[in-house]
Design goal:
Strand order of the largest sheet: 1-3-4-5-2-6
Helix content: 40-55%
Radius of gyration: 21 Å
Distance between the termini: 40 Å
Structural class: alpha/beta
Largest sheet: 6 strands, mixed
């Protein structure tokens, strides 16, 4: 209530998420679902605006499926643990987007093309969604499976439709698993169609002048065609979290656990060398056990969950 009165949107959202997670822990799933829907709709302390208007996604050539999944972002930067340089860059990107007219009138274009690299589970896709929320734009996630067609020439046509959508809309366009599209053209294992796709993507990316921000995400940057790198204005590497970052993430994700039931310091140390997703899975698994056992989390249960997290592949 204090955050509401002072128009502190970040604190209001944090408190609301804690209330939602508490309702989930009490098995009030319908209430929690409705609360999440209201929070995602943009109705915060200082902003009671309606839901974002979601543009109609383009369809494949035969019109039978969408090439893009367009949705409203839920995660915010406050939900994530990012390094200081990335947080600072995101702040600059948001400012540039909001003052794009001023920049372009001076002959300087805002940055719109980004490449996110790093191991699996390090928060790349979550960061793209959080950036969209900071901008108050929809997320438009490109389905690589939908774009890549078995018919000769269809993939390039689908890509053209995706970039035309980005030029006509104001979204954060995300190419997840980008290496499936951007493989090196001199790779002897790839056929001619893939090489043509890479060439088409290079042309579309370089010509993009629309308001949308384009983010390509890959776990395997070494597979990308060399010519792609210079087309992106910023390349952000998402590395494995430090123990300090793991502690931050564990505290954020376990705020609704009463009692928490595990030692944050010891757990962060045990998870050293694992990605952000490992810490999130650890807390989720513990919450599940806490609900099923009516808050009776024994040290043995915590140890077993931690062991399973450490021994599974990431």
């Amino acid at each position: 209530m204090r955050a509401f009165r002072t128009h502190d949107e970040v604190s209001f959202r944090r408190a609301a998420l804690e209330l939602i997670e508490e309702q989930e822990a009490r098995h009030h799933f319908a209430l929690a679902r409705d609360m999440r829907a209201l929070l995602a709709s943009g109705g915060g302390a200082a902003d009671s605006a309606p839901q974002l208007e979601l543009p109609e996604p383009p369809k494949a050539s035969d019109g039978s499926w969408d090439l893009i999944d367009v949705h409203e972002p839920v995660l915010s930067l406050d939900d994530l643990v990012l390094d200081a340089a990335t947080e600072s860059l995101f702040g600059e990107v948001v400012l540039e987007a909001h003052k794009s007219d001023l920049l372009e009138s001076a002959g300087v274009a805002p940055r719109r093309r980004f490449l996110f690299t790093g191991p699996a589970g390090t928060g790349k896709t979550s960061a793209a969604e959080a950036l969209a929320r900071e901008l108050s734009w929809p997320v438009a996630k490109v389905s690589v499976e939908s774009v890549v067609s078995s018919y000769l020439g269809e993939t390039a046509t689908n890509l053209r439709r995706v970039f035309e959508f980005a030029a006509a809309s104001r979204v954060v366009l995300v190419f997840d698993e980008f290496d499936a599209l951007g493989r090196m053209r001199d790779d002897s294992t790839e056929h001619g169609e893939i090489k043509r796709v890479v060439s088409s993507f290079l042309q579309f990316l370089e010509k993009h002048r629309g308001p949308s921000i384009i983010i390509a995400i890959t776990n395997y940057p070494d597979l990308l065609d060399f010519a792609l790198w210079r087309r992106f204005e910023e390349v952000i590497n998402f590395g494995l979290p430090s123990v300090h970052q793991l502690r931050q993430l564990l505290r954020k994700r376990s705020r609704s656990m009463q009692p928490r039931g595990f030692d944050v310091e010891a757990t962060a140390t045990s998870l050293r060398g694992l990605p952000h997703a490992a810490a999130e899975r650890f807390v989720t698994d513990l919450k599940r056990q806490q609900i099923l056992t009516n808050n009776a989390l024994s040290p043995e249960v915590v140890t077993a969950v931690l062991r399973s997290i450490r021994h599974r592949p990431w």
